[in-house]
């Protein structure tokens, strides 16, 4: 009987990871200066196989000692000309606020790893 409870908890946790990642991805994507979220190699393979991945560009880790605490890593691509530390700070604040608000979890940390810089589609490049 104890094993079935553990399996249930484990199943709930993996389901929750997907939801948390989705909230975090949506929050990060709304920040001015974020072009997109980079997907990992594993996510790219899943997408090629036709599997829809929730929370693309986000990794969520639950702490073993506290099921209500998470650590989140976001992998954004930033528009050229934006101040990267300011965009990263805005991502950290928004992700923490939204995840805590909509899930009731405690976000211990939000790490931002910028994966690239791209030109904005409407930017005018000065030619010399």
Description:
With 128 residues, this protein is α/β, with parallel strands linked by helices. The chain has a single domain (2-118), classed as Alpha-Beta Plaits. The protein is built from three helices and six strands. Strands 1-4-6 form a three-stranded mixed beta sheet. A three-stranded mixed beta sheet has the order 2-3-5. A hairpin with a 2-residue loop joins β2 and β3. α1 (2-29) packs across α3. The protein is globular. The N and C termini lie far apart (74 Å).
Give the C-alpha Rg.
Answer: 17 Å
The sequence of SSEs as H and E is HEHEEEHEE
Structural class: alpha/beta
Mean pLDDT comes to 80
What's the total number of strands?
6
Distance between the termini: 74 Å
Task: Tell me the CATH topology.
Answer: Alpha-Beta Plaits
Shape: globular
Number of domains: 1
**Count of DSSP H/I helices:** 3
Low-confidence stretches: 1-10
Helix fraction bin: 40-55%
Spatial arrangement of strands, main beta sheet: 1-4-6
Q: Name the CATH class.
A: Alpha Beta
CATH superfamily: Cation efflux protein, cytoplasmic domain
Architecture in CATH?
A: 2-Layer Sandwich
Largest sheet, in brief, is:
3 strands, mixed
Share of β-strand residues: 25-35%
């Amino acid at each position: 009987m104890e094993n079935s409870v553990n399996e249930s908890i484990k199943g709930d946790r993996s389901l929750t990871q997907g939801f948390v990642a989705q909230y975090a991805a949506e929050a990060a994507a709304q920040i001015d200066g974020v072009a997109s979220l980079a997907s990992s190699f594993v996510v790219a393979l899943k997408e090629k196989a036709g599997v829809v991945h929730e929370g693309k560009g986000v990794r969520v880790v639950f702490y073993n000692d506290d099921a209500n605490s998470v650590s989140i890593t976001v992998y954004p691509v930033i528009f050229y000309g934006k101040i990267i530390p300011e965009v990263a700070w805005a991502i950290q604040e928004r992700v923490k606020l939204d995840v805590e608000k909509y899930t009731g979890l405690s976000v211990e940390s939000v790490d931002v790893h910028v994966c690239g810089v791209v030109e904005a589609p409407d930017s005018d490049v000065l030619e010399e």
